[in-house]
Amino acid sequence: MVGPGVLPGRVAVVTDSTAALPPALARAGGVRVVSLDVIVGRRRTLDGDIDGADLLAALERGERPVTSQPPPGAFAAAYERAAAEGASAVVSVHLSGQLSGTAAAARLAAADAGIPVVVVDSGTAAMGMGFAVLAAARAGTPQLPKPAPEPWWRRWAPARAPVAPVSVPDVDEVAATAQAVAGSSQVWFLVDNLDHLRRGGRLSGTSALLGTLIQLRPLLTVTDGHLAVAGKVRTRRAARARLVQLAVESVQARGKARVAVHHLGNVDAAADLARQVVAAAGDGVVQTVISEIGAVLAAHVGPGALAIAVADAEPVVPAQSPADMSSPGEVGSSGEPSTADGDDAPVP
């Protein structure tokens, strides 16, 4: 679990490791990341703790990491830490509940937290969720008033006490911000080996066999919280070109957008995709993030995977409360999980 402390009065933000947030961005936003559990070979560790090169080598040896959602106690510890550091409430943003029980575990911990906790089922994964997390972190930070210019005769007076924030952010508004950005996001990814998806239960055996026989490379996406096929391309070069095209069209449809490119042990390819998107979309891209996926996502997409996530640059929050929102992207402080298909974690 990573992340610095939170400002007193702030609505703290917690997420899980499938957001694929670069550690520097998580630290800068004051975001706490609760890692999913991973077993690679005989080694039990946390998602993000295994080196990318070691993970890639294990996958190429044919080892498939075994993954599971964090226990409720891991979320409870994150909420307790936020409360101890002065947070007024917590917004906890997590992987689609259609793909994993991670959000359900967070709700169990939220029910007993000492401060209000609103759990947001993002309905997506990777930086489709990560951009929502960062938007919530910005919305949850108290805005200090700009100090009025002091007259010259007070410049030598003893320093005055700092001015208190105008107001503490509203936890429901912060949750709605996260939901709006997550709902706006689109994630596409291509894989080299369909067998990882088949073994993970995210693609039927027939589809995987057919794709292998005719050498199709599927472009996959997350729709309504579920994994779906966005297209099928015969060559990897054509698949990358289509991936860029989809991202550019998404940016242009928004006007302004944030873009992330994910990879596994191939930062050069990810950087090249990012350059292509920015070159084609121009000023429409206000932020570009390049991020390596962790062991949980890698367990399902395998070596050679590339992904692009696009989200609105600024949240467009609907005039409704989190309680009015429906799954996927369900928001709630506690209760029974709306979906949970066991402990095995998902693809993005």
Could you walk me through the main structural features you see in this protein, from its secondary elements to its overall organization?
Helix 3 (72-84) crosses helix 4 (102-110) and helix 5 (126-139) runs antiparallel to helix 6 (171-184). Strand 9 and strand 10 (226-233) form a beta hairpin. The two termini are 20 Å apart. The chain is an alpha/beta fold. It has 11 helices and 14 strands. A 6-stranded mixed beta sheet has the order 10-9-8-13-11-12, sandwiched between helices. Strands 2-1-6-7-14 form a 5-stranded mixed beta sheet, with helices on both faces.
In short:
The chain has about 350 residues and is α/β, with parallel strands linked by helices. The protein contains eleven helices and 14 strands.
Structural class: alpha/beta
N-end to C-end Cα span: 20 Å
Oligomer: single chain
Identify the overall geometry: globular
Number of strands: 14
Question: Rg, please?
Answer: 21 Å
- Residue-averaged pLDDT: 81
List the uncertain runs: 1-5, 202-214, 321-329, 334-348
Give the fraction of residues assigned to helices: 25-40%
Strand order of the largest sheet: 10-9-8-13-11-12
Element string (H = helix, E = strand): EHEEEHEHEHEHHEHHEEHEHEHEE
Strand content: 15-25%
- Please report the number of helical segments: 11
Q: Can you summarize the main beta sheet?
A: 6 strands, mixed
